[in-house]
Fold this protein.
Amino acid sequence: MFAVFKIAMRALRRNILRSFLTMLGIIVGISAVIVGVSMGTGAKAEVDKRIASMGQNLLTVMSGNMSRGGVRGGFGMQPNLTIGDYEAIRKEISGITAVSPEARAQGQIAAGNQNTSIQVLGVSAEYLAARSWNLRSGDNFSETDVRNANKVCLIGATTAKTLFGENVDPVGQVIRIKGAPFTIVGALEAKGSGSFGQDQDDIVLMPYTSAMKRLSGDTRLRSFFVQAATPNDIADVQAQLTDLLRQRHQITEGKDDDFMVRTQQETSDFFNANNRIMTILIGFFAGISLVVGGIGIMNIMLVSVTERTREIGIRLAVGARGRDVLLQFLTEAVLLSVLGGALGIATGYWLAPLLTKFAEFPTLISHTSVMLAFTVSAIIGIVFGFFPALKAARLDPIEALRYE
């Protein structure tokens, strides 16, 4: 077997340029597979990371969709959740560790001679626990602050930097939101980008009662965040929330819910759907490139059989069997494909980090995809090299010796 391999290497070295050009289709196809899969895997990991930053074992209850003038908006557009719903969830749902409503208000925030327009979220004192969000300094506001709608708030890292600079602790400072003074009682740790790519740190949190009473004037809520005690409790909590809210909103059998309860896994699946489509498309075009590369190997091997017809005739005349010739040419085809696959893997490992560095697209190379790509390259060599090898093995020795 070593002699067969040695002869195959000698045959490929006779025309290095032709051998490389033959492998090029395999190199491009394999590297495209690795880069494409790494893009899909990296995008999925980034989405999962951002969703995980929202909190652990988190369920989101969104208010009903909006339909106005024949135009239908999505869930969360029409606030129809109430403070009564929130209190009922706290009292009646088992298997949860934290729950918080969310009231939104957009406002101009000023501190000294600095001001910025950001989103203000009205939440409960349990919001930080539900979102797994820690404080960099200061303290959280209390349930007493929520009950009394006190003018206190927590400030995100980006907002604090904008208003007070890089190295100033904002705790104890007073900011004005829509003209009303609010005292900063806590500074939040940086969280980075959210699931939609937004800056989670460009934010101000305050008691939802303060946001509703002093800023927005709303009497209803857009969403709740509910944290299940363990991952195993998520499905049960989701079912309890659905039953409770259907009962409170008087939704009869057969009627659609006017709310949505979504888990982190459902959110992850929603955002990763496009990533899967992208990965499939890239894999499809990479597969076409591999087929083209395989056809190139078949073409060159057929040319090689023609060029080496007299050599084949001499080998058959001195006692070589047809299967020996078959094995020889099949080894050459597989060697071309495997070498192309190895170069393709090296190219893929080189291109993926470059894509992350220069295009800022997250990539994560999957070792499973690398092994699969290498296996596919070997199979391509066998499949597309078999016909030329079979043709060589079936040559008549006398006719082959006469060939000019």
